[in-house]
Automatic annotation (TrEMBL):
Stretches assigned to the Fe2OG dioxygenase domain: 183-287
Keyword flag Iron: yes
Organism this protein belongs to: Lojkania enalia
Listed name of the protein: Clavaminate synthase-like protein
Pfam families documented for this protein: 2OG-FeII_Oxy (PF03171), DIOX_N (PF14226)
The family this protein is said to belong to: Belongs to the iron/ascorbate-dependent oxidoreductase family.
């Protein structure tokens, strides 16, 4: 069991692929304990090569080194409605009562053609990717192939993690297969400028305190720290230090809902006061957009009502988007300016 006040443990995932039954049982037990404690753990020993991780992180930095004018040629807000492309600084507020967030992003997913049923039916985050022109980013074809290779390998890893999660819930290893078939996942290249020294500490965030909307998230960090996970037992924020080659794995709201709150989708945030630029790459695995998530059969007692009503994957994630991006629109209109300081001082997690 993770100790209260201790950062998410680093687990060797290679035993999942081994024939060592006892080691695999220990991995399952360790993951179960993490899911019950704060929904976070880190893994090494996975199948995503370190060289590929480093290559996509280098492309991440090269993309954000482009000028704002160049990045805006692939803006997700002006070119499409399916969540692909560049997102400006200050586009989101995930923590009520804070300023728009000090991060910029670039969204990538499956290459979904405009003739694909997901695109035709306007399914969650489904459409063609946006790539800079070769005149703006030389060797952009390598950026594209690297990003899509990395994306596909991390999605495959997410499906393996789901198999472990099934075992932690005393389900068959393949229990989530139907949910994972035709799954939607979104990769987000992120850049966090360092927080200005004179910025208001209780209002400025790289990403504000929030829980993820989907099922599981796999995060690749560079060498600059900033990610923090909240520990309810000690009421403190714990630093998740970057570990070479490791993925940070956390459960999202859908998994918490699925398990009737047996597992935790936990608060986390990013505050970059390092004095350096921070880069990271989360892959948000949502699942098949039409799959209906409802309480797992062994996560409530016989005759007990589920805490949540059934919901499709698509609706659950869209609700999360609407909530967080809606805060920015409210802020821009000035509705939050008068009470923002009061709200921030009242936040229990700050």
């Amino acid at each position: 069991m993770p100790r209260a006040g201790s950062a998410p443990p680093i687990l060797d995932f290679s035993v999942f692929y081994s024939n060592n039954a006892s080691a695999k049982e220990k991995l399952v037990a360790d993951v179960r304990n993490c899911c019950r404690h704060n929904g976070f753990f880190q893994i090494t020993g996975h199948n995503v090569p370190l060289e590929l991780q480093q290559k996509i992180m280098e492309w991440n930095k090269r993309f954000f080194d482009l000028s704002l004018e160049e990045k805006m040629t692939v803006s997700k807000d002006t070119t499409n409605i399916w969540n692909r492309g560049y997102e400006l600084l200050h586009s989101q507020i995930l923590e009520e009562g804070t300023l728009p967030e000090l991060k910029e992003g670039f969204y990538i997913g499956d290459e979904i053609s405009k003739s694909h049923p997901y695109f035709v039916n306007k399914k969650l985050n489904s459409g063609p990717n946006m790539w800079p022109d070769a005149s703006i980013m030389p060797n952009v074809e390598d950026f594209k192939s690297t990003a899509l290779d990395y994306y596909s390998q991390v999605v495959a890893l997410a499906k393996d993690i789901l198999k472990v999660l099934a075992l932690t819930l005393d389900l068959d290893e393949g229990w989530f297969n139907e949910f994972a078939t035709g799954a939607v996942a979104t990769m987000r290249l992120l850049h966090y400028p360092t927080q200005p020294p004179d910025s208001p500490q209780k209002l400025t965030r790289g990403i504000g305190a929030h829980t993820d909307f989907g099922t599981i998230t796999l995060l690749l960090q560079d060498r600059v720290a900033g990610l923090q996970v909240y520990d309810y037992a000690t009421k403190e924020w714990l630093d998740v230090k970057p570990t070479l080659g490791a993925f940070v794995v956390n459960l999202g709201n859908l998994m918490m809902r699925w398990t009737n709150d047996k597992y935790i989708s936990n608060l986390h945030r990013v505050i970059n006061v390092s004095g350096e630029e921070r880069y990271s790459i989360p892959v948000f695995f949502s699942g098949n957009p039409d799959f209906v998530v409802e309480c797992l059969p062994n996560c409530r007692k016989e005759g007990e009502e589920a805490k949540y009503s059934p919901i499709t994957v698509e609706q659950a994630v869209l609700d999360g988007y609407a909530y967080s991006y809606g805060r920015v629109e409210k802020f821009k209109k000035g509705a939050a300016k008068s009470d923002i300081v009061v709200q921030a001082s009242e936040l229990a997690v700050v």
